[in-house]
Design goal:
single chain; alpha/beta; 12 helices; globular
Length: 443
Amino acid sequence: MWRRTHQQAAGDAPRVIVVGAGFGGMAAVEELDRAGGQVLLIDRNVYSTFQPLLYQVATGGLNPGDVSYPARAFTRRRGVRFRLGEVTGVDPARRQVTLADGGHFGYDYLVLATGVSAAYYGVTGAAEHSLGLYTRRDAVDLRDHIMARLERLDIAGPGKSVNFTVVGGGATGVELAGALAELRSTALDAAFPEVDLASVHIRLVEQADALLLPFEPGLREYARHQLEARGVEIRLNTAIQEVRSDRVILADGEDLPSDVTVWAAGVAAPAEVAEWQLPQGRGGRLLTGSDLRVRGQDRIFALGDIALIEDQPLPQLAQPALQTGRHAARQIRRLAAGQPALPFGYHDKGIMATIGRRSAVVQLPHRIKIRGTLAWLAWLGLHLLTLLGNRNRLSALLNLSWRYLTWGHGGGIIVGDDPAPFLVDGPLPVGSDRGHGTAPSRT
């Protein structure tokens, strides 16, 4: 450590800027602070978001505050400074970053951990007419749209229907589709007694030939059967050509009604990354060497979802983000001590996804596979334990317990403000008001 090896005063330690308060950024901050570094954490939000539970916020199972933790409180406890802002420029020659509000900050080392946003792959209308699930604002916006559509259905009366389409069969898409099915089967009777449950349709569209591709085939099939048993229509080997405000058009020309379309089909770098003039690869993500330094840069690291690591593609999960965050911090310590940086090696701790109550899939190293109730309890326990803050853990535990303990008896729906009149009476605008922020990796 700097403070022990070199007996440096805090002012002599390298100045490190970490951009992004997600899993990777926070892991880097914590590791750097242990070494006594001067760390400045920059994020466009005043909180860190626990992305894996955003789908519960979107379906009324959790409060937005349950999945967010004040970034300033985290950094203050560890003696690290926090600055609210959006990085619009990176100047490697001057070792300086520029913020949208005109602020300038110098660094000795820079860590970029901005997270990602949705990748639309050129699908017409997808950006304008679909909703994402990458930030807390996304989750609240999606929840309001879901509830507004159900309100509209309640007002319309018998003979009408509402269609929810989830695009993407990865963990986010599967979990959201399962949660929507649970919402329909357990809560609508109490919250919307005039709504015929058969009039609420949920569809999951995936371009590949299976759901949850990182999992082994048996777990994929289990997830598909569980969703179908919950009444989710699954479309595999299906590409989308266009998204409109009230429908999706498939590549084969089929026209499917869709009142709310959620895009969970891929990731791309935030738009501002292109302005930094650093090497970018697929989806605009930053290209790095094996030691996580951005190609051509000795003092700039990229980690988590925003990084495309040389010869080591990693999934968009919490563990890669956490591990790359710690590794980057340790390499900064080595470089500051005059030692060479070491290559990153990912330690696979397994992957998991939940389908709904008493149904999940867990795939661990050494071909260990778990599914069903035990997997669901493991998924639930891990996510509650890894939430930041005891208040968040307790609140999330109480809210989820209420949802699942009142199963079949109209488990409560957490809502926010009443839907605006245009949401109930007119089209549901999406896109411009979503306010994308830094998105941490999911697990």
